[in-house]
Design goal:
Order of helices and strands: EHEHEHEHEEEEEHHHHHHHHH
Number of helices: 13
Strand order of the largest sheet: 1-9-6-4-2-3
Structural class: alpha/beta
CATH architecture of the largest domain: Up-down Bundle
Largest sheet: 6 strands, parallel
Radius of gyration: 20 Å
CATH superfamily of the largest domain: Dehydroquinate synthase-like - alpha domain
CATH topology of the largest domain: Dehydroquinate synthase-like, alpha domain
Number of strands: 9
Distance between the termini: 33 Å
Strand content: 5-15%
Length: 387
Protein backbone atom coordinates (compact mmCIF):
# COMPACT_ATOMS: atom_id res chain seq x y z
CA UNK A 1 0.00 0.00 0.00
CA UNK A 2 1.27 3.54 -0.68
CA UNK A 3 2.74 5.53 2.19
CA UNK A 4 3.20 9.30 2.05
CA UNK A 5 6.34 10.80 3.59
CA UNK A 6 6.92 14.28 4.98
CA UNK A 7 10.21 15.43 3.47
CA UNK A 8 10.73 18.38 5.83
CA UNK A 9 10.62 18.01 9.59
CA UNK A 10 12.28 18.75 12.93
CA UNK A 11 12.48 16.14 15.69
CA UNK A 12 13.33 17.14 19.27
CA UNK A 13 13.73 14.83 22.28
CA UNK A 14 15.98 16.34 24.97
CA UNK A 15 14.62 14.60 28.09
CA UNK A 16 16.90 12.17 29.93
CA UNK A 17 15.03 8.89 30.51
CA UNK A 18 15.77 6.61 33.47
CA UNK A 19 13.86 3.33 33.54
CA UNK A 20 13.58 0.45 35.97
CA UNK A 21 11.89 -0.85 39.12
CA UNK A 22 13.17 1.25 42.01
CA UNK A 23 14.50 4.00 39.74
CA UNK A 24 12.60 6.65 41.73
CA UNK A 25 15.22 6.31 44.46
CA UNK A 26 17.76 7.89 42.08
CA UNK A 27 15.98 11.25 42.13
CA UNK A 28 18.48 12.79 44.55
CA UNK A 29 21.38 12.12 42.18
CA UNK A 30 19.43 13.70 39.33
CA UNK A 31 18.82 16.84 41.41
CA UNK A 32 22.56 17.04 42.05
CA UNK A 33 23.32 16.66 38.34
CA UNK A 34 20.99 19.58 37.65
CA UNK A 35 22.87 21.63 40.31
CA UNK A 36 19.77 21.80 42.48
CA UNK A 37 19.83 22.14 46.26
CA UNK A 38 16.20 22.87 47.17
CA UNK A 39 13.75 20.49 45.54
CA UNK A 40 10.00 20.97 45.82
CA UNK A 41 7.73 17.96 45.27
CA UNK A 42 4.54 18.68 43.33
CA UNK A 43 1.83 16.05 43.72
CA UNK A 44 -1.90 15.59 44.28
CA UNK A 45 -4.07 15.30 47.35
CA UNK A 46 -4.45 11.54 47.11
CA UNK A 47 -0.88 10.58 46.30
CA UNK A 48 0.56 12.64 49.14
CA UNK A 49 -1.09 10.18 51.53
CA UNK A 50 0.68 7.19 49.94
CA UNK A 51 4.10 5.64 50.18
CA UNK A 52 4.89 6.81 46.65
CA UNK A 53 5.55 10.39 47.72
CA UNK A 54 7.38 9.18 50.82
CA UNK A 55 9.75 7.16 48.62
CA UNK A 56 10.64 10.31 46.69
CA UNK A 57 10.88 12.48 49.80
CA UNK A 58 13.19 9.97 51.49
CA UNK A 59 15.34 9.70 48.36
CA UNK A 60 15.75 13.48 48.27
CA UNK A 61 16.65 13.72 51.94
CA UNK A 62 17.84 17.20 52.95
CA UNK A 63 17.41 18.41 49.37
CA UNK A 64 13.61 18.36 49.81
CA UNK A 65 12.34 21.74 51.03
CA UNK A 66 8.65 20.91 50.87
CA UNK A 67 5.69 19.25 49.19
CA UNK A 68 2.94 21.07 47.32
CA UNK A 69 -0.01 18.66 47.26
CA UNK A 70 -3.02 20.75 46.30
CA UNK A 71 -3.16 19.43 42.72
CA UNK A 72 -6.57 18.14 41.64
CA UNK A 73 -7.72 16.36 38.46
CA UNK A 74 -8.05 18.96 35.69
CA UNK A 75 -5.54 21.18 37.41
CA UNK A 76 -6.35 24.87 37.35
CA UNK A 77 -4.62 28.20 36.87
CA UNK A 78 -5.38 29.06 40.49
CA UNK A 79 -3.62 25.89 41.67
CA UNK A 80 -0.49 26.72 39.66
CA UNK A 81 -0.41 30.24 41.10
CA UNK A 82 -0.77 28.94 44.67
CA UNK A 83 2.01 26.42 44.11
CA UNK A 84 4.26 29.08 42.65
CA UNK A 85 3.79 31.31 45.67
CA UNK A 86 4.56 28.37 47.96
CA UNK A 87 7.69 27.43 46.00
CA UNK A 88 8.97 31.01 45.93
CA UNK A 89 8.56 31.31 49.70
CA UNK A 90 10.68 28.18 50.14
CA UNK A 91 13.36 29.30 47.68
CA UNK A 92 12.87 26.15 45.56
CA UNK A 93 15.31 25.73 42.68
CA UNK A 94 14.15 22.34 41.31
CA UNK A 95 10.69 20.83 40.84
CA UNK A 96 9.89 17.13 41.21
CA UNK A 97 6.44 16.21 39.92
CA UNK A 98 5.06 12.93 41.22
CA UNK A 99 1.77 11.88 39.67
CA UNK A 100 -0.19 11.90 36.44
CA UNK A 101 -0.74 14.60 33.86
CA UNK A 102 -2.26 17.10 36.29
CA UNK A 103 0.72 17.05 38.65
CA UNK A 104 3.19 17.21 35.77
CA UNK A 105 1.39 20.08 34.05
CA UNK A 106 1.05 21.93 37.35
CA UNK A 107 4.80 21.71 37.81
CA UNK A 108 5.37 22.95 34.26
CA UNK A 109 3.19 25.97 34.99
CA UNK A 110 4.98 26.56 38.29
CA UNK A 111 8.35 26.35 36.53
CA UNK A 112 7.27 29.25 34.33
CA UNK A 113 6.10 31.43 37.20
CA UNK A 114 9.00 30.62 39.52
CA UNK A 115 11.49 31.56 36.80
CA UNK A 116 9.77 34.41 34.99
CA UNK A 117 7.68 35.86 37.82
CA UNK A 118 4.06 36.93 37.76
CA UNK A 119 1.01 34.74 37.54
CA UNK A 120 0.39 31.97 35.07
CA UNK A 121 -2.15 34.08 33.16
CA UNK A 122 0.69 36.47 32.28
CA UNK A 123 2.43 33.75 30.25
CA UNK A 124 -0.39 32.17 28.24
CA UNK A 125 0.33 31.29 24.63
CA UNK A 126 2.75 29.45 22.40
CA UNK A 127 6.52 29.87 22.30
CA UNK A 128 6.56 33.02 24.39
CA UNK A 129 9.37 32.08 26.79
CA UNK A 130 12.72 33.77 26.24
CA UNK A 131 14.89 31.22 28.01
CA UNK A 132 15.03 28.09 30.19
CA UNK A 133 12.73 27.68 33.17
CA UNK A 134 13.37 26.01 36.53
CA UNK A 135 14.69 22.41 36.22
CA UNK A 136 11.94 19.81 36.36
CA UNK A 137 12.19 16.08 37.08
CA UNK A 138 9.10 13.95 36.42
CA UNK A 139 8.21 10.69 38.15
CA UNK A 140 4.96 9.49 36.51
CA UNK A 141 2.51 7.39 38.50
CA UNK A 142 0.26 6.81 35.47
CA UNK A 143 1.10 5.63 31.98
CA UNK A 144 -0.68 7.77 29.45
CA UNK A 145 -0.22 11.52 29.19
CA UNK A 146 3.38 11.48 27.98
CA UNK A 147 3.71 14.89 29.61
CA UNK A 148 7.06 13.79 31.04
CA UNK A 149 8.63 14.42 27.62
CA UNK A 150 6.38 17.03 26.00
CA UNK A 151 6.64 20.78 25.58
CA UNK A 152 3.01 21.47 26.52
CA UNK A 153 0.86 21.90 29.60
CA UNK A 154 -2.93 21.93 29.52
CA UNK A 155 -4.33 23.86 32.48
CA UNK A 156 -7.98 24.64 33.09
CA UNK A 157 -9.47 28.03 33.69
CA UNK A 158 -12.24 26.79 35.96
CA UNK A 159 -14.12 30.09 35.96
CA UNK A 160 -14.33 30.23 32.16
CA UNK A 161 -14.76 26.44 31.78
CA UNK A 162 -12.03 26.22 29.17
CA UNK A 163 -8.63 24.63 28.94
CA UNK A 164 -5.58 26.78 28.28
CA UNK A 165 -2.57 25.52 26.36
CA UNK A 166 0.94 26.54 27.37
CA UNK A 167 3.47 25.30 24.85
CA UNK A 168 7.16 26.01 24.56
CA UNK A 169 10.27 23.88 24.08
CA UNK A 170 11.64 25.31 27.32
CA UNK A 171 8.84 23.45 29.15
CA UNK A 172 10.16 20.00 28.19
CA UNK A 173 11.19 18.32 31.47
CA UNK A 174 14.89 17.71 32.06
CA UNK A 175 14.52 14.16 33.40
CA UNK A 176 11.80 11.49 33.36
CA UNK A 177 12.18 8.66 35.87
CA UNK A 178 10.05 5.70 34.74
CA UNK A 179 9.68 3.40 37.71
CA UNK A 180 6.99 0.72 37.22
CA UNK A 181 6.75 0.28 40.99
CA UNK A 182 5.23 3.78 41.11
CA UNK A 183 2.25 2.63 39.00
CA UNK A 184 1.42 -0.63 40.77
CA UNK A 185 -1.48 0.81 42.76
CA UNK A 186 -3.27 2.36 39.77
CA UNK A 187 -6.92 1.18 39.59
CA UNK A 188 -8.19 -0.73 36.54
CA UNK A 189 -10.29 2.13 35.21
CA UNK A 190 -7.49 4.66 35.46
CA UNK A 191 -5.04 2.17 33.93
CA UNK A 192 -7.35 1.71 30.93
CA UNK A 193 -8.13 5.41 30.52
CA UNK A 194 -4.54 6.61 30.69
CA UNK A 195 -3.46 3.82 28.36
CA UNK A 196 -6.04 4.96 25.81
CA UNK A 197 -4.67 8.48 26.09
CA UNK A 198 -1.29 7.10 25.03
CA UNK A 199 -2.85 5.12 22.18
CA UNK A 200 -4.62 8.28 20.98
CA UNK A 201 -1.27 10.10 20.99
CA UNK A 202 0.25 7.41 18.79
CA UNK A 203 -2.60 7.37 16.29
CA UNK A 204 -2.92 11.13 16.02
CA UNK A 205 0.85 11.52 15.60
CA UNK A 206 0.69 9.11 12.67
CA UNK A 207 -2.23 10.80 10.90
CA UNK A 208 -1.21 14.38 11.69
CA UNK A 209 -0.52 16.91 8.93
CA UNK A 210 2.91 17.20 10.57
CA UNK A 211 3.67 13.48 10.73
CA UNK A 212 7.30 12.52 10.21
CA UNK A 213 9.36 9.32 9.92
CA UNK A 214 10.99 9.35 13.38
CA UNK A 215 7.72 10.11 15.15
CA UNK A 216 6.02 7.45 13.00
CA UNK A 217 8.55 4.85 14.10
CA UNK A 218 7.90 5.64 17.76
CA UNK A 219 4.14 5.80 17.33
CA UNK A 220 3.78 2.50 15.46
CA UNK A 221 5.92 0.74 18.05
CA UNK A 222 3.87 2.40 20.78
CA UNK A 223 0.65 1.03 19.28
CA UNK A 224 2.03 -2.50 19.26
CA UNK A 225 3.23 -2.18 22.86
CA UNK A 226 -0.12 -0.81 24.08
CA UNK A 227 -2.04 -3.50 22.21
CA UNK A 228 0.02 -6.17 23.99
CA UNK A 229 0.55 -4.73 27.45
CA UNK A 230 -2.45 -2.52 28.29
CA UNK A 231 -4.88 -5.45 28.62
CA UNK A 232 -2.34 -7.20 30.84
CA UNK A 233 -1.93 -4.13 33.06
CA UNK A 234 -5.71 -3.71 33.33
CA UNK A 235 -6.25 -7.38 34.14
CA UNK A 236 -3.41 -7.65 36.66
CA UNK A 237 -2.27 -4.40 38.20
CA UNK A 238 0.67 -6.15 39.81
CA UNK A 239 2.17 -7.26 36.48
CA UNK A 240 5.44 -5.35 36.76
CA UNK A 241 6.45 -6.15 33.17
CA UNK A 242 3.19 -4.82 31.75
CA UNK A 243 3.37 -1.75 34.00
CA UNK A 244 6.91 -1.00 32.87
CA UNK A 245 6.18 -1.49 29.19
CA UNK A 246 3.15 0.80 29.43
CA UNK A 247 5.30 3.50 31.02
CA UNK A 248 7.71 3.23 28.11
CA UNK A 249 4.86 3.19 25.58
CA UNK A 250 3.33 6.32 27.07
CA UNK A 251 6.67 8.10 27.00
CA UNK A 252 7.48 7.24 23.39
CA UNK A 253 3.91 8.21 22.44
CA UNK A 254 4.57 11.54 24.13
CA UNK A 255 7.79 11.99 22.17
CA UNK A 256 5.95 11.13 18.95
CA UNK A 257 3.02 13.50 19.32
CA UNK A 258 5.04 16.38 20.76
CA UNK A 259 6.93 16.42 17.47
CA UNK A 260 4.17 15.42 15.04
CA UNK A 261 1.23 16.99 16.97
CA UNK A 262 -2.29 15.68 17.50
CA UNK A 263 -5.59 16.42 15.76
CA UNK A 264 -9.34 16.49 16.13
CA UNK A 265 -9.54 13.71 18.72
CA UNK A 266 -7.72 15.90 21.20
CA UNK A 267 -9.48 19.08 20.12
CA UNK A 268 -12.87 17.48 20.71
CA UNK A 269 -11.77 15.77 23.92
CA UNK A 270 -10.40 18.99 25.40
CA UNK A 271 -13.78 20.67 25.00
CA UNK A 272 -15.77 17.74 26.41
CA UNK A 273 -13.38 17.64 29.35
CA UNK A 274 -13.57 21.36 30.02
CA UNK A 275 -17.39 21.60 29.82
CA UNK A 276 -18.48 18.28 31.33
CA UNK A 277 -15.48 17.12 33.37
CA UNK A 278 -14.92 13.96 31.33
CA UNK A 279 -11.42 12.61 32.09
CA UNK A 280 -9.15 13.17 29.11
CA UNK A 281 -8.28 9.53 28.43
CA UNK A 282 -11.94 8.51 28.50
CA UNK A 283 -12.94 11.34 26.15
CA UNK A 284 -10.14 10.39 23.75
CA UNK A 285 -11.14 6.72 23.85
CA UNK A 286 -14.79 7.40 23.00
CA UNK A 287 -14.04 9.90 20.24
CA UNK A 288 -11.09 8.12 18.61
CA UNK A 289 -12.93 5.65 16.31
CA UNK A 290 -15.43 8.31 15.21
CA UNK A 291 -12.63 10.72 14.30
CA UNK A 292 -10.83 7.97 12.39
CA UNK A 293 -13.96 7.40 10.31
CA UNK A 294 -14.34 11.14 9.72
CA UNK A 295 -10.73 11.36 8.49
CA UNK A 296 -10.75 8.04 6.65
CA UNK A 297 -10.44 9.30 3.09
CA UNK A 298 -7.73 11.82 3.99
CA UNK A 299 -5.06 9.24 4.90
CA UNK A 300 -6.34 5.68 4.35
CA UNK A 301 -2.81 4.34 3.90
CA UNK A 302 -1.86 5.44 7.40
CA UNK A 303 -5.00 4.05 8.98
CA UNK A 304 -4.50 0.72 7.24
CA UNK A 305 -1.06 0.46 8.82
CA UNK A 306 -2.53 1.40 12.19
CA UNK A 307 -5.02 -1.46 11.72
CA UNK A 308 -2.11 -3.81 10.98
CA UNK A 309 -0.31 -2.65 14.13
CA UNK A 310 -3.50 -3.46 16.07
CA UNK A 311 -3.36 -7.00 14.70
CA UNK A 312 -5.97 -6.81 11.95
CA UNK A 313 -5.67 -9.14 8.95
CA UNK A 314 -6.08 -6.96 5.84
CA UNK A 315 -5.25 -9.38 3.05
CA UNK A 316 -7.55 -8.93 0.04
CA UNK A 317 -9.14 -5.69 1.28
CA UNK A 318 -9.18 -2.49 -0.74
CA UNK A 319 -7.48 0.51 0.86
CA UNK A 320 -10.57 2.19 2.36
CA UNK A 321 -11.89 -1.08 3.81
CA UNK A 322 -8.47 -1.76 5.29
CA UNK A 323 -8.37 1.74 6.76
CA UNK A 324 -11.82 1.29 8.29
CA UNK A 325 -10.43 -1.64 10.26
CA UNK A 326 -8.51 0.87 12.39
CA UNK A 327 -11.77 2.25 13.77
CA UNK A 328 -13.17 -1.25 14.25
CA UNK A 329 -10.00 -2.24 16.10
CA UNK A 330 -10.48 0.71 18.48
CA UNK A 331 -14.04 -0.30 19.33
CA UNK A 332 -13.02 -3.91 19.92
CA UNK A 333 -9.99 -2.95 22.00
CA UNK A 334 -11.79 -0.41 24.19
CA UNK A 335 -14.67 -2.80 24.86
CA UNK A 336 -12.18 -5.49 25.87
CA UNK A 337 -10.56 -3.25 28.49
CA UNK A 338 -13.89 -1.98 29.85
CA UNK A 339 -13.95 1.57 28.49
CA UNK A 340 -17.22 3.52 28.00
CA UNK A 341 -18.40 3.55 24.39
CA UNK A 342 -20.57 6.69 24.24
CA UNK A 343 -20.54 10.25 25.52
CA UNK A 344 -23.97 9.63 27.04
CA UNK A 345 -22.43 7.06 29.40
CA UNK A 346 -20.08 9.68 30.89
CA UNK A 347 -22.82 12.25 31.60
CA UNK A 348 -22.28 14.52 28.62
CA UNK A 349 -25.42 16.55 27.89
CA UNK A 350 -26.51 16.55 24.27
CA UNK A 351 -27.62 20.16 24.59
CA UNK A 352 -24.02 21.22 25.20
CA UNK A 353 -22.53 19.56 22.12
CA UNK A 354 -23.09 22.53 19.81
CA UNK A 355 -21.06 24.83 22.06
CA UNK A 356 -18.37 22.17 22.36
CA UNK A 357 -18.23 22.00 18.56
CA UNK A 358 -17.73 25.76 18.37
CA UNK A 359 -15.01 25.59 21.03
CA UNK A 360 -13.25 22.65 19.35
CA UNK A 361 -12.91 24.59 16.13
CA UNK A 362 -10.79 27.10 18.08
CA UNK A 363 -8.60 24.44 19.73
CA UNK A 364 -4.98 24.50 18.53
CA UNK A 365 -4.92 20.75 17.89
CA UNK A 366 -7.51 21.01 15.11
CA UNK A 367 -4.93 22.70 12.86
CA UNK A 368 -2.99 19.45 12.43
CA UNK A 369 -5.96 17.24 11.60
CA UNK A 370 -5.42 15.41 8.28
CA UNK A 371 -8.75 16.67 6.96
CA UNK A 372 -9.09 20.47 7.35
CA UNK A 373 -12.19 21.53 9.30
CA UNK A 374 -13.71 25.01 8.99
CA UNK A 375 -17.34 24.41 9.94
CA UNK A 376 -18.37 23.54 13.52
CA UNK A 377 -21.34 21.66 12.05
CA UNK A 378 -18.87 18.99 10.87
CA UNK A 379 -17.56 18.61 14.40
CA UNK A 380 -21.08 18.49 15.81
CA UNK A 381 -21.86 15.52 13.56
CA UNK A 382 -18.91 13.62 15.02
CA UNK A 383 -19.98 14.45 18.58
CA UNK A 384 -23.53 13.29 17.82
CA UNK A 385 -22.28 9.97 16.45
CA UNK A 386 -20.22 9.49 19.60
CA UNK A 387 -23.13 10.49 21.81
Amino acid sequence: MPYDVNLNFVFRFPTKIIFGPGAAKEVGMEVEELKGTKALIVTDRDLVKTDLVKIVRDALGAKCVGTFSDVTPDTGVHIVNAGSEYGAALGADTLISVGGGSAIDTAKGMAICLTKGGRLEDHAGLNILDGPVMPHIVIPTTAGTGSEVTYAAVIKDHEQKRKLLFADNYLIPNVAILDPNMTIGMPKGLTAATGMDALSHCIEAIHSMQSEPIADALAFHGIRMIREFLPRAVENGGDIIARGQMLIAATIAGAAFSNAQVGMVHALAHCIGARFGVPHGIANSILLPHCILYNLDACPDRYSRIAEAMGKELRGMDLLKAAEQAAIAMWEFTKAIGMPQTLREVNVEESGLEQCANDALMDGAIVYNPKPIFDPAEILKVYQKAF
